[in-house]
Design brief:
Blueprint: H1 7-24, H2 28-36, H3 46-56, H4 75-85, H5 107-118, E1 124-127, E2 143-147, E3 150-160, E4 168-174, H6 177-182, E5 189-195, E6 201-204, E7 214-224, E8 228-229, H7 235-245, H8 247-271, E9 273-274, E10 277-278, H9 283-311, H10 317-341, H11 343-347, H12 353-363, H13 370-382
Parallel strand pairs: 1-4
Antiparallel strand pairs: 2-3, 3-7, 4-5, 5-8, 6-7, 9-10
Helix pairs in contact: 1-4, 4-8, 4-9, 8-9, 8-10, 8-12, 9-10, 10-12, 10-13
The structure holds flavin-adenine dinucleotide (FAD).
């Protein structure tokens, strides 16, 4: 066992760190100003420009297989990269990637949806959640009924990330009610690729964070049979795979953000004088800094372990739930302490802390809430699927 980054990993970390410092952090004030004044965080075309700069540095399709032009760096590298890039709140994402489940498409679907998504020509979204079915994904109500060569979709989806911008949605609907009931929702649902011009509508949902998901309405939307992604009646597992993929990644984001925030608190506490001394000299402040540092390290190792396990080709779902649960809660505790250490300034929109505070609150909700992660972790242990401390 060797608990250090390899030379290659260090080099990637350094390159991304430089990219973040040189290209992203200088945009932070503009992002804050734009958001304060109700404009999009980045001006049109800026994200693409940044993605092309990252591409020049070799970062394009970090997890995309080489046959699709990606770098296919693996999960550990992805964790390292995400922890670095999350040190800024500038809404940047690397180009050259597509949703994991799109790779299940047949050749025609890959040409029509996967490759244009990787190339940035098309935007996708994924829709499972409904007004009456969030954590309880098996309780969805949207239906798809066969009519000739088409399936006719009716129902509503909610909280869909990117739903306002997407050209197409991968949407989960019930295709066999009896089978759906008989299998407690595990079967009888299918994933359809539905282009926006097939007729679904989206509506922006205002949220605490600065980007809004969308509600989607399907009113007799006709989707051709060839747009079924994966197998008919077997879409539930695709849904779980889509949700599961992002889980430990939330933890990675929390680690990067918390590191930057903690550094801000340390710097501020050295400068801010009260009652004749820097607040850094007060035990009340020191303990908040110390607790935050310990918790960041704990989350980092949970994230790296989840990523490493996946690279080893092993099932990382239990670890991913742990990394998500602990990482997102750690992120919330750290941002709260950092805001407190900054006093009134922490509460203003002059600094990014309140923005991060609002963003961090989401980490505990999407991709499976705290309660759902605890349920998964406890169930695995109680049912004996995983033993306490079995990782090493
Ligand atoms: C900004 C944002 C983006 C999102 N993006 C997407 C997306 O792209 N695609 C998509 O399909 N979905 C998306 N979601 C939906 C997200 O996955 C759900 O909001 C989440 O799974 C929780 O579901 P819910 O909101 O219906 O809460 P509910 O399931 O109604 O839960 C309400 C509360 O009860 C708790 N709870 C529920 N069941 C149990 C239980 N058995 N035991 C104990 N406690 C329980 C929950 O933890 C929560 O605290 C997004 C959500 C948000 C807010």
């Amino acid at each position: 066992m060797h608990l250090r980054l390899t030379d290659e990993q260090k080099m990637v970390q350094k390159t991304i760190r430089r990219f973040v410092e040189k290209e992203l952090i200088p945009l932070e004030n503009e992002v804050l100003r734009n958001e304060r004044e109700g404009r999009p965080s980045l001006p049109p075309g800026k994200l693409k420009e940044l993605q092309l700069k990252a591409k020049e540095a070799g970062f394009w399709g970090i997890n995309t297989p080489e046959e699709y032009g990606g770098a296919d760096l693996g999960q550990m590298m992805m964790a390292i990269v995400l922890m670095e890039v999350s040190k800024t709140f500038v809404p940047f994402s690397f180009g050259g990637s597509a949703d994991n489940i799109l790779y299940y498409g047949n050749e025609e679907q890959k040409q029509k949806y996967l490759i244009p998504t990787i190339n940035g020509e098309k935007k996708s979204c994924f829709a499972m959640t409904e007004p009456g079915a969030g954590s309880d994904t098996r309780n969805i109500k949207m239906t798809a009924v066969k009519d000739g060569n088409d399936w006719v979709l009716n129902g509503e989806k909610t909280f869909i990330t990117g739903g306002n911008e997407a050209d197409f949605v991968m949407v989960i609907a019930i295709t066999d009610k009896e089978r759906h009931q008989a299998t407690q929702g595990r079967e009888g649902v299918t994933c359809f690729i539905a282009d926006r011009d097939m007729g679904w509508k989206s509506e922006y949902i205002h949220t605490m964070g600065d980007w809004g998901p969308a509600g989607l309405v399907f009113d007799n939307v006709r989707v051709p049979e060839e747009n079924i992604l994966g197998e008919l009646h077997k879409g539930y597992n695709l849904g779980l795979e889509w949700i599961g993929f992002a889980r430990w990644i939330v933890g990675a984001r929390a680690v990067g953000s918390a590191e930057r925030l903690l550094q801000m608190a340390i710097d501020y506490s050295r400068e801010r004088i009260t009652f004749g001394k820097p607040i850094a000299e007060r035990q009340a402040i020191q303990w908040q800094i110390a607790d935050s540092a310990v918790e960041i390290e704990a989350a980092r190792w949970l994230v790296l372990n989840a990523a490493f396990t996946l690279d080893e080709g092993e099932d990382n779902r239990h670890l991913a739930s742990m990394a998500k649960l602990y990482g997102s809660n750690m992120g919330n505790r750290v941002v709260d302490r950092v805001l407190q250490i900054h006093g009134g300034m922490g509460y203003t929109k002059e600094l990014p802390i309140e923005r991060w505070y609002r963003e961090a609150r989401l980490w505990r909700i999407y991709d499976g809430t705290d309660e759902i992660q605890r349920m998964i972790i406890a169930r695995n242990l109680i049912k004996g699927h995983v033993k306490v401390g079995q990782n090493l």
